[in-house]
Amino acid sequence: MNYRHAYHAGNHADVFKHAVLVMLLEHLRAKPKAFTVLDTHAGAGNYDLRSVEAGKTGEAADGIGRIFDAALPAVPAYLDLIRHLNPEGLAVYPGSPAIIRTFLRDEDRLIVCELHEEEAAKLRRAFRGDRQVGVHHRDGYEAINAFVPLPSRRGLVFIDPPYEEAGEQGFHILVDHLNAGLEKWPGGMFAAWYPLKDRVGINALRKRYGRANPPTLAVEFVRTPFDGKSLAGSGLLIANPPFGIAERLTALGEDLAAAFAMKKGGLGLEWWIAER
């Protein structure tokens, strides 16, 4: 595995998916029963935006850098978290495990998986001594089969793979494991991220997505026009989404469009499998 998220941390895809992740975590916290989150492709935790890797791409400048001083009324907790981590100006961006950890109560648990050896070592250091977090150096897709259904029987499986495979293969791998996970835990909430460079990959994903799966909402945020090469935007496929989330996502789309001063693109929603 060669992918290193340090080159892309804080880009527009991170802003979108992590804002939605915060919404899902807020839903889980709204009820007293304990929950567990499985983060299948966790990365390294926190990312230094002043690092050589971040500087080579400059993607954070057009992502979190554009909205750090803006407002996202649909999900204020997301930017509150980023600002709390950066009291003297934007320098660090939290990855999904760091974001999830801030939402855990004493009774909640987090399982993080990372296949890249160096990234997994960073996670172990970050969560050393934390009894609420289990760190596993293993393949995230294999972890779905190993840990689902989650121990608390309530929670979220957050799937954010690197898509290193060529063409449609990465989408096929994602959807096959997502289908298998939902077969084992049909009542579980799953959120799977996918990149948008063109429509080929997402069309392949949709064709293979199980028709017997539970209600599933696709939400996509398109930042720039499609050119078939660069990352124009990204999406999240949410199985068993929380009640009322569609309205909050619509509001988030309006917030992001304003924060990024967008004239084209934006956020779109589609029920792949309607609520019953």
TL;DR?
The chain has 276 residues and is α/β, with parallel strands linked by helices.
What does this structure look like?
This protein is an alpha/beta fold and about 280 residues long. It has one domain: Vaccinia Virus protein VP39 (Rossmann fold, 3-Layer(aba) Sandwich), CATH 3.40.50. It has helices spanning about 10-30, 50-55, 65, 75-85, 95-105, 115-125, 140-145, 170-185, 200-210, 245-260, and strands at about 35-40, 45-50, 90-95, 110-115, 135, 155-160, 190-195, 215-220, 235-240, 265-275. It has an eight-stranded mixed β-sheet, sandwiched between helices. It has a two-stranded antiparallel ribbon with strand order 2-3. Strand 4 (about 110-115), helix 6 (about 115-125) and strand 5 form a beta-alpha-beta unit. The longest helix has 18 residues, at about 10-30. The model has no long low-confidence stretch (mean pLDDT about 95).
> How many separate domains make up the residues?
1
User: Which percent range describes the beta-strand content?
Assistant: 15-25%
* Biggest sheet character: 8 strands, mixed
- Tally the helices: what do you get? 10
Helix share bin = 25-40%
Rg from Cα: 17 Å
* Cα-to-Cα separation, first versus last residue: 40 Å
